[in-house]
Amino acid sequence: MAQQAAESGQRPAGEEQEEVIIVGAGPSGLATAACLSLRGVRSLVLERDGCVGSLWRNRTYDRVRLHLAKQHCALPHAPHDAAAPTYLPRDDFARYLDGYAARFGVRARLRREVREARFDEARGEWVVEALDLATGKVERYAARHLVAAAGENDEKVVPEVPGLEGFPGKVLHACEYRMGKGMEGKAVLVVGSGNSGMEIAYDLAVAGAATSIIVRSEVNLRYYSFTSFLKGIISL
């Protein structure tokens, strides 16, 4: 029926018209919506989870902070407060995202999982179908422009490790780790030495776990002079 309506030039029943559809209500999606709003462009954000900035709320460990100074992590037109810590804790940054969305009147529909997005050449529009996770109803939208802002870390990636299925201990992905409490005295292996791997290993060690790190390739440690180190500490 929807296809027949499109071929006849009519808009399918129940289809909502928007100027711009943005998929994802993380920092990139919110910033895009805010900048468009300031230019008078109407947009709608579709977000799978039940809040904005869900990565920071639902898939991060408790001790995580911004890894860059706050002046490098502010969204457009909204610098962080001068009294805020240089490296914002997770909860502070989540509150910042809430305030940002409210300040710029971001229109967001939460718990909407985008299932399909295709460009209709005949209409010159994007047709987007999203599932309302609360009701199970499929919603249909049409927009001249589509912005994909789901983020590169939206889904966890677990490598295939031979024999892992037979490992008797507990296996966690970094997005499922919260704190080292309960790991005291246990042998824990962290795979990977990126930001998350190194911080989680440190958190476990502080909690009293016997922590080891395994790295696929060489670890490059950058040299800093003692003077540069002191300048960095003083700037904090």
What can be said about the biggest beta sheet? 6 strands, mixed
Tell me, what's the shape? globular
**What Rg, in angstroms, do the CA atoms define?**
22 Å
User: What string, H for helix and E for strand, traces the elements in order?
Assistant: HEHEHHEEEEEHEH
- End-to-end gap: 61 Å
**How much helical structure, as a percent, in the residues?**
25-40%
Unreliable stretches: none
Instruction: Give the helix tally.
Output: 6
Your description of this structure?
The protein is an alpha/beta fold and 236 residues long. 25% of the residues lie in helices and 23% in strands. The protein is built from 6 helices and 8 strands. The strands form 2 sheets. A 6-stranded mixed sheet has the order 3-2-1-6-5-4, covered by helices on one side. It has a two-stranded parallel ribbon with strand order 7-8. Strand 5 and strand 6 form a beta hairpin. It starts with a helix and ends with a helix.
Helices and strands, with pairings:
Elements: H1 2-7, E1 16-23, H2 27-38, E2 43-47, H3 54-58, H4 90-103, E3 108-110, E4 112-120, E5 125-132, E6 138-148, E7 187-191, H5 195-206, E8 210-214, H6 226-235
Parallel strand pairs: 1-2, 1-6, 2-3, 7-8
Antiparallel strand pairs: 4-5, 5-6
